[in-house]
Design goal:
By secondary structure, the protein is mainly beta. The protein has one domain: TonB-dependent receptor, beta-barrel domain (Maltoporin, Chain A, Beta Barrel), CATH 2.40.170. Helices cover 6% and strands 52% of the residues. It is built from six helices and 41 strands. It is globular.
């Protein structure tokens, strides 16, 4: 980009003379959690998926919901969206670690600075609406600002006493109960919500059988006090999950023979997690300015017990790592395939990926309008941490595939298995939108400062008294980013949009990932027709990859690697309209399309990225994305929708070996809803109606995974 950054910084600092709050935010005294406000006026790409949008397909998988947002790509893992992998405009999708995730405007990743990987993600089935920010509009929502931010909006406190119950049953033992009840007398109001979701799973386990489903439970409570211009809200969320999921994918031959089976050695794999979140939010809607302030605390624990070494003694001439065994089998090693199939006796080593996370802090926004300036000042002070206490258990796989009982094979509380990492961070931003007739210019400036400390111990047991001689290790970061956006009203229906911003994603123990980003496009709105077209380009100064068990690589989980300079560009289209038909039937239609290209700018070898040649694509970034939704609405209460989604081809590595490619794939979903009364609605949803069997991801990087099979769910919602 040929933009003078010093000029940008100077321009942004002019706004410091007028203290502010988020220019794009429309403050709402009933619910104060939105970050987008008026989507049409945002000086950058933004999408709001309302509760009405979410109700059409009754989705509980965030991957499917985000198919309606161009430039947002996903990597499916378990078919239910339990642990999302989300990319915005080319950011690394692994555990959504390179985007800012929020619930009700509060950072919700377990440790967004120390370990941003989202093994926890807000339960989608209880979410009321979703906001997605891209481009310069995301500069107010850090710490990660390269791709953008996603804000999940929880169920609002009702304006009058009442609630609802949703009950659904479906394929593979699916059961979901969602119930709320709220009261409101004007001054005091509150809400209680439960969400229970479970399934038996659609995979079967070779040789030994076992459960491949999940059970997830949320309990949420809100209490609000409102008096005049003041509003204080307390929110508490308790979460619990058990899921019998695995990292282990299939070799190509196993996938072709039986794509929805798992290897017997993964029968013991299980994820257990639990957590508690609390927050106090204040809003003061004064005549001269608006103040919002939030104090929060999130505690989260997860233990994913899973296969680590598929052949821990390196018997039969085969390496021990699970991904190495799958890679060897893909290359034709008969012993490696036999180990996976359970036809050779080996020792399997499983690891408790046992982590404890904290995330707590406070933030406030101050907003004021001064003449034709709408100014925002925001500040956040927080601390987060990740603590690892990882032990190992072993099982012997007999010839024929049976597994022995688990036994402790190593205490393992040394090095990376007994680690504590902590980050303290402060950030602030200022943003000013200057309206000059048809032209509105928004300038923003963000500052991020953080200090990181890592400790490791050498104890053979988890007492943490024998500190490793190389620790503690300290690092710090001090980053400032700037951006501007502009909208120009050609007429009442057509608006031009342009913007540029510097983006940053913090990295523990290394230099932050940084990129310059620009976008240019237009919005058209007239009556029931809307069209938005955007071109974007992101120039990475240093693409950073973090080693994770889910991504593979010859590296230790948590280590970071530089991918050098990378260019990403593309265009995004969103269109919608409603066609009136005969007999009072209307036909809503929506189309989303994105085309993206990416190129590494240098050639290198890396333990994480592998062998990369200049011009290679970023892993897991599909060349295209298409989503089309066509529905009908009658005046008898009957309505329905058909959703077709197609993702282009991608690869799990930059070099894209023979068994690392992911061909383009499609899914087709249908839904029908019948409103019986003002209180009762029945619905049915059929997902993947064609029962397509496609490779939708490879995890860690060689193991093929299929999309969720054809499944049906039926349910009702009763409002009272």
């Amino acid at each position: 980009m040929s933009i003078n950054i010093k000029v940008l910084n100077s321009f942004a600092f002019l706004a410091l003379f007028s203290l502010s709050a988020y220019a794009e935010m429309e403050m709402n005294i009933v619910e104060t959690v939105t970050i987008v406000g008026s989507q049409e006026d945002v000086a950058g790409s933004a999408t709001v998926l309302s509760n009405e949008d979410l109700a059409k397909m009754v989705d509980t998988d965030i991957h499917k919901i985000l198919s309606a947002v161009p430039g947002v790509y996903v990597r499916t893992e378990d078919g239910y969206g339990l642990r999302p992998n989300i990319s915005i405009r080319g950011t690394a999708p692994d555990r959504s670690g390179k985007i800012t995730l929020m619930e009700d405007g509060v950072l919700t990743a377990p440790a967004p600075y120390t370990s941003a990987s989202a093994y926890y993600f807000p339960t989608t089935g209880r979410i009321n609406a979703v906001e997605v920010l891209k481009g310069p509009a995301a500069i107010t929502q850090g710490p990660s600002t390269i791709g953008g931010a996603i804000n999940m909006i929880s169920t609002p406190i009702p304006e009058a006493n009442g609630g609802f119950v949703t009950q659904e049953l479906g394929s593979d033992g699916l059961s979901r109960t969602h119930a709320t009840y709220g009261v409101n007398n004007g001054t005091l109001s509150g809400l209680v919500e439960i969400h229970e979701n479970s399934a038996d799973g659609f995979d079967s386990i070779m040789n030994v059988g076992g459960d491949t489903g999940f059970n997830k439970s949320d309990f949420l409570a809100k209490l609000r006090y409102t008096s005049g211009v003041h509003e204080l809200t307390f929110k508490m969320l308790d979460i619990d999950e058990t899921s019998n999921q695995t990292y282990v994918g299939l070799t190509q031959s196993s996938f072709e023979n039986s794509p929805r089976k798992r290897y017997g050695m993964s029968a013991y794999d299980i994820m257990n997690n639990d957590g508690e979140q609390t927050s106090f939010a204040y809003i003061g809607n004064f005549e001269a300015f608006t103040l919002t302030a939030t104090k929060w605390s999130n505690d989260y624990h997860r233990d994913w017990f899973k296969v680590d070494k598929a052949n821990s003694t390196k018997a039969h001439g085969v390496e021990d790592g699970i991904d190495e065994v799958i890679a060897a089998a893909n290359e034709g090693d008969a012993n490696a395939q036999a180990i996976l199939d359970g036809n050779l006796a080996v020792t399997i080593k499983l690891k408790h990926n046992n982590r404890f996370y904290t995330n707590e802090g406070m933030q406030f926004n101050l907003s004021k309008e001064i003449g034709n300036n709408a100014v925002t000042f925001g500040y956040r002070d927080m601390e987060d941490s990740e603590s690892r206490l990882q032990s190992y258990e072993c099982t012997d796989q007999a010839e024929g595939g049976s597994l022995s009982a688990l036994v402790s094979c190593s205490t393992g509380f040394t090095g990376s298995n007994n680690r504590l990492r902590t980050t303290t961070a402060t950030s602030w931003f200022i943003q000013d939108t200057i309206t000059m007739g048809a032209l509105a210019v928004t300038v923003g400036y963000r500052s991020e400062e953080f200090d990181k400390v890592e400790l490791r111990w050498d104890d053979g047991v988890p007492t943490r008294t024998m500190l490793n001689s190389s620790y503690p290790k300290n690092s710090s970061g001090d980053y400032t980013t700037s951006g501007f956006g502009a909208t120009y009203d050609i007429n009442d229906n057509l608006k031009l949009v342009a913007g540029f911003h510097q983006g940053m994603s913090p990295v523990f123990g290394g230099d932050a990932e940084q990129a310059d980003n620009m976008e240019l496009g237009f919005r058209y709105n007239k009556d029931v027709t809307a069209l938005e077209v955007m071109y974007f380009a992101s120039d990475y100064a240093n693409l950073v990859g973090e080693c994770k068990n889910s991504s593979g690589g010859d590296c230790e989980a948590g280590d970071t690697f530089s991918g050098g300079e990378v260019d990403v560009s593309g265009f995004e289209v969103t269109a919608s309209t409603v066609v009136d038909g005969p007999d009072s039937i209307s036909y809503p239609m929506a189309l989303t399309y994105a085309r993206t290209t990416s190129e590494f700018q240098s050639s290198f070898d890396s333990d994480y990225f592998g062998t990369v040649a200049s011009g290679d694509d970023i892993p897991y970034l599909p060349a295209s994305q298409l989503a089309a939704v066509v529905g009908f609405v009658t005046d008898t209460g009957l309505s329905g929708d058909m959703r077709l989604v197609k993702y282009g081809s991608a690869c799990s590595t930059a070099q894209c070996g023979q068994f690392e490619n992911i061909e383009s794939y499609t899914f087709l979903d249908l839904s029908l809803r019948q409103k019986l009364s003002e209180s009762m609605t029945l619905y049915t949803v059929v997902e993947n109606i064609n029962d397509d069997v496609d490779i939708v991801s490879r995890a860690p990087k060689n193991g093929a995974r299929s999309q969720k099979p054809k499944s049906i769910k039926v349910g009702f919602t009763f409002n009272f």
